[in-house]
Amino acid sequence: MKAWLIERFGTGWLETWKEIKEHPVPPHALNPIYCLGGLTFLSFLIQAVTGIILALYYRPTPEEAYASIQFIMEQVSFGAMIRSVHHYAANIMVLLVMLHMLRVFYTGSFKKPRELNWVVGVLLYLLTLAFGFTGYLLPWDQVAYWASVVGTEIMGGIPVIGKYLMILARGGLKVTEFTLTRFYVAHVIILPLLAILLMGLHFLMVRLQGISEEL
Ligand code: HEM
Ligand code: HEM
């Protein structure tokens, strides 16, 4: 298999892989608080796997959304379990990302030369919240509906651009079926694509700059 790949793609990729595989973890980063970023990533992967499974049965229309959730909970094999994992891991991810941010702040790792990675981190934080916010509307029950009304209303309170942002998020002046479509597209297409892009950038910068030294 290895020979087959080398014949076709040369040895450059092997060296890159060896470098990644054999890169030692610096002793000061063996502290468990340095695991929080990786754990945030793990919870994201769990969300991606369980989310894709949910998307096989979930239907994003006002007529069918709630019924499809009931179907997932009552008829689909392991459906209730998969939905619970998606629910709990969503909360855990928000908690972990905050703790990771606190670790980075506590160890002063946001300072030169890592300012830009802190900025990417802030975007990742907002992205995580946006995942939670858009996912919450999807069951299309009373709690989901009113949480989205209030959430988008708060968005509308931002000076100058707020009203336009609210209309953009709602797909009109009120929370309607267009809002459900928008939140669904954001939740399963736009946000995951942005997450892959920003996490790729975040990890690349960590590797290029190395993990920050001890205090
Ligand atoms: C989805 C969200 C995020 C993921 C998956 C993630 C992942 C990671 C990972 C795996 C590392 C390597 C070291 C470690 O694990 O502590 C790291 C480092 C770092 N992260 Fe994050 N991160 C996220 C969000 C954030 C946020 C919200 C901030 C700050 C606002 C941030 C700022 C940084 C910085 C500055 C470093 C370099 C730290 C150093 O060199 O010591 N990250 N991130
Ligand atoms: C990455 C790919 C993802 C996909 C394909 C996906 C897909 C879905 C689908 C189809 C639903 C509707 C089913 C339901 O409401 O139970 C849902 C709900 C939800 N998602 Fe995701 N999701 C993803 C990532 C995430 C992430 C990263 C978070 C949070 C940080 C998140 C938070 C939520 C929440 C809070 C709900 C509502 C759960 C509930 O009804 O109890 N999702 N997601």
UniProtKB/TrEMBL annotation:
Domain Cytochrome b/b6 N-terminal region profile residues, every copy: 1-215
InterPro entries assigned: Cyt_b/b6_N, Cytb/b6-like_sf, Cytochrome_b_N_euk/bac, Di-haem_cyt_TM
One MF annotation (Gene Ontology) recorded for this entry: electron transfer activity
GO biological process terms on file: respiratory electron transport chain
Transmembrane segments: 31-58, 88-106, 118-138, 144-162, 183-205
Record keywords, A-Z: Membrane, Transmembrane, Transmembrane helix
GO CC annotation: membrane
Keyword presence, Metal-binding: no
UniProt superkingdom: Bacteria
Pfam families in UniProt: Cytochrome_B (PF00033)
Keyword 4Fe-4S on entry: no
PANTHER family registered for this protein in UniProt: CYTOCHROME B
Protein name from the UniProt record: Cytochrome b6
Protein species of origin: Carboxydocella sporoproducens DSM 16521
